[in-house]
Amino acid sequence: xxxxxxxxxxxxxxxxxxxxxxxxxxxxxxxxxxxxxxxxxxxxxxxxxxxxxxxxxxxxxxxxxxxxxxxxxxxxxxxxxxxxxxxxxxxxxxxxxxxxxxxxxxxxxxxxxx
Amino acid sequence: xxxxxxxxxxxxxxxxxxxxxxxxxxxxxxxxxxxxxxxxxxxxxxxxxxxxxxxxxxxxxxxxxxxxxxxxxxxxxxxxxxxxxxxxxxxxxxxxxxxxxxxxxxxxxxxxxxxxxxxxxxxxxxxxxxxxxxxxxxxxxxxxxxxxxxxxxxxxxxxxxxxxxxxxxxxxxxxxxxxxxxxxxxxxxxxxxxxxxxxxxxxxxxxxxxxxxxxxxxxxxxxxxxxxxxxxxxxxxxxxxxxxxxxxxxxxxxxxxxxxxxxxxxxxxxxxxxxxxxxxxxxxxxxxxxxxxxxxxxxxxxxxxxxxxxxxxxxxxxxxxxxxxxxxxxxxxxxxxxxxxxxxxxxxxxxxxxxxxxxxxxxxxxxxxxxxxxxxxxxxxxxxxxxxxxxxxxxxxxxxxxxxxxxxxxxxxxxxxxxxxxxxxxxxxxxxxxxxxxxxxxxxxxxxxxxxxxxxxxxxxxxxxxxxxxxxxxxxxxxxxxxxxxxxxxxxxxxxxxxxxxxxxxxxxxxxxxxxxxxxxxxxxxxxxxxxxxxxxxxxxxxxxxxxxxxxxxxxxxxxxxxxxxxxxxxxxxxxxxxxxxxxxxxxxxxxxxxxxxxxxxxxxxxxxxxx
Lengths: 114, 612
Known about the structure:
With 114 residues, chain A is of the alpha+beta class.
């Protein structure tokens, strides 16, 4: 078992949740989403995001509209759908529970070690 | 100095160095390979291209600037290596995808495995394709070769038509492993070739295989099902891409593929069996003499067209269409079949047309052999006078046919000298009366031919014998001719002219040689054999036929007219009434009466009463 694989899997699992969170309030086009995620060091390379966006869109969680750009090709602006909103809410709860659970488990271990 | 290429990336125009272009192309192809159609490959690629175009755009100050390999490398480091695009499906799937495995299998392609080959790698390739050990396929070959020798042909066909797995990607496709970067890497680490070559070859292979008809059909079907997918999935709450409609699409595709494969197998069987049969036939004709009936074919072949030519023409005329059927079947069954090329296709078409034309010419030649029907007549006198009694008997020949009888077919046999000869019993015997003092026999030989001379020559070459001995005329029941004359409707008519008054007796075995009725003006028909017949002018008189006595016929004329007349005949008796006259006959006796007389005959005697 490679540590890289586990790391990547952990990151990718959270990634969907994070993309939905970025789009929570405002529509954004890919470069903007990427910027946010890269700033947060959640994403190293940009390629990963495209299959994820397509998957979320196909699942009906996201939709998009085209907007002309002054410098470059037309841009896809992504936004949450109603189901996406519900999905995100549920993920929020799950994430909080998970964070809590992980905290408990890891801190217990720390306590024991001490 | 570097050559540049113009590209259109997401609707934007770029100048790009050739080496940079190739790198970018390989990169995009590798990414494409990481996705399947069901993941929305084309859409993902379009998005990525758009992003790359955007990134390029940021790096270009003016329109004249060219994108170099440096920029491409930068972009790749930003976008990530192809394996970074891979999304581990298991993390995201709500449920395991049952079709995952079958999809992998569907991408398995038939290649020749030259790494593990004995001859051309066909067997191990088939082994990979069907997922069984190559040893079983090899055993099957051996059985096929020992069985009919047809395995060799099939092997050679597959050898020519199935491409060799040259690149790593092809080798992976051959074994059914999904072609993705990690697998290719694994193979390379195992000691194959380098990535870039492989990836270009994959690209080439993709464009090649797209051309195949079967692939096109399945692609369009999968596209159609996908369109349904997108619309319906908009409403789906499930995060999984697997929906009900997707499943229906999969089922439909599955059955469609199975159906197509069945048709493919069916076509292959038809094509292959016909080809095999044709080749076996060709070989037997070529070796000649193996088939006992073959020299018979040569004998009817009056046009003297070489048999090998005809069989070759037939072989091509039938074989080529069936080869295409076989090829079509293979194409349906195997996605990445090598094209036989348009030159080969047109050559085959040309050969086929030539063969058809050739066969037509041969047919016309053969038909023209019957254009002329000529006969040769030879009249001989026989020492038979009006006072003689002549017996006629047919003679058979044990060498040819034991049974004596008329037959319009021909046979091939060896004569006393051991030479092959054609014999036939197509002989008709006719008897006519003549006023001459001596009998005569007219022998008429006839045959067909391409020309008057040919037909005449053929007729003259008919050998026929007869003998008059002790008042008996022995006629051969057959005639013979040399096989080089061919059989072309040779037949004989024997006309026997007998003086009026001659008595003739035809043996029972002549029966079938006489006409059924008095055709050709014969005075003896098949019914008259085995009797002593006296020849009269245009007729015969039977001397020993049982004389038929004139039959005594019971005639009853019943003529009933008028109201007062009646006739009654029933099991009680007869009752006749005419006006006042009456006659009654029954078991009691006879009663008759009219106005004046009454007669009664019964057990009491005869009573006659008169009124007057």
